[in-house]
């Protein structure tokens, strides 16, 4: 390698990494040299240098403007800038006032600098979004007969066993089959504290293993993992234009034509109407083209919304598009699914009531020994309760399940029956307590040994710890109406709703009934959100103005249908999403008002004759950079 090759390669790398900045810098150097040449009276040199500044600084804008003009038959703001700059240069040559050529070059220079600054501003947002993409591992350590082998992620198959060592990124969604560790899930769910996981628990691609080695079984294809779905949705969000942006883009097309029309009038009428000379008239018309261009208006929306999307992703709130970030801030009513949304969706043992002569431990121990042979959700909750108390379970034999009734078998050579009251032939000893528990929305399981009642076990789907606080928070935020929709029975639904402070409940609903409930809300409140997690919630999520799915417990159908995903299954993130949406609306409105104010002020200054081309360019491009940077405020929590 020659001594000069290293600096050259470094310069070339800088040019590749920062093309807009390098272009602006070269244009700036040429403008300065051309201006100095004019100052020293070297006209020939200036006429050679300044056109080079025009070409280098204006090439990209000219290409984009002409492409839009010929392919889309639309006028572009970039093209207006180039026309104004060339007009200033032509006017300078015509009047032999060569400083106007410098003015045109300064216009192109400031436009190039503005483009570079906007690019860097947007890169900050894109880096926040791209940080999601870097969470995935390229390979996984697959455990095979005779050893381990590194396999590309896309080559993994369902049923493969993979080993994840301490501190490594988990390569794909999988189930722990051996080991125990604390998993850092901040990248997926936004949780600040590691979550302890052990055998049987699911772990997610992109999360970081703690201090324990884990053996995992792949239970879904890598491309359907949670992180891959997040990446796909975020990529889609970057390309989807929200209604406000679509309106502004449509407005820009008509506005650009209006500017050209008014520019032509300003270039011809003032000498006849106001008595201006032709040079002054053309100069003011060119400045008008610059200051009236809606660059700042165009930059008022997407930087703010993309920054909001990036902010939400950091907090475990996935907005599928900027449109949904805007919409969530307008929500006036919210409908919640019950099971898996307001509740955990997993039955738990709430209370054990032993019959006379028995203890809670005896009832739970015998019930769990038998239920260990059942796959029913209630059976799992009873076994889990026994495991939490670290009870030793005897082996059950001759186990038989009676569908819709219960389960019967032998434990320590004694017949144990678990199920409904008539199945276990229970006495009325605990009937009153059972009725009271059922009135509270709990499922009662009777346990008998032979012909003697041991006791009853109350099982219920527990309310999420944060659910009640979330409902209160939403009410404080001004959400006008909150309802609960569920396919569960009326008694259970009303009991849950009372605990949460929800006054309106629709129970025993089919999926199509939930859709009708959403439609009814929309007629009264217009913008309605639906929060759910199951396949049966998907139609209602699609009907709602904003569909919101629970990211971990949510079904694939619900996740695909929803507009917003709460990655950590934490309901309090819903309030954060609404606050973020309202902030985005506020920032966008502020940007639009500022952009329009700048255009009006610059136009007034131009007609009063107190503004030059460079000052007009600085005002125009400065306002564009300011609203872009203003949009980046949404990156702050």
How would the global form be characterised?
elongated
Structural class by sheet pairing and helices: alpha+beta
Spatially, the strands of the biggest sheet line up as: 9-21-20-19-10-17-18
Give the number of helices.
Answer: 25
From the structure provided, what is the oligomeric state, counting identical versus distinct chains? single chain
**Which stretches of 5+ consecutive residues score pLDDT under 50?**
1-6
Characterize the main sheet.
7 strands, mixed
Task: Describe what you observe in this structure.
- By secondary structure, the protein is of the alpha+beta class.
- The chain is built from 25 helices and 21 strands.
- The strands form four sheets. Strands 9-21-20-19-10-17-18 form a seven-stranded mixed beta sheet, sandwiched between helices. It has a six-stranded antiparallel beta sheet with strand order 2-1-3-8-4-7, with no helix packed on it. Strands 11-16-15-14-13-12 form a six-stranded antiparallel beta sheet.
- Helix 4 runs antiparallel to helix 5 (99-133), helix 5 packs parallel to helix 25 (613-631) and helix 12 (302-314) packs parallel to helix 25 (613-631).
- The longest helix is centred in the last third of the chain and has 36 residues, at 572-607.
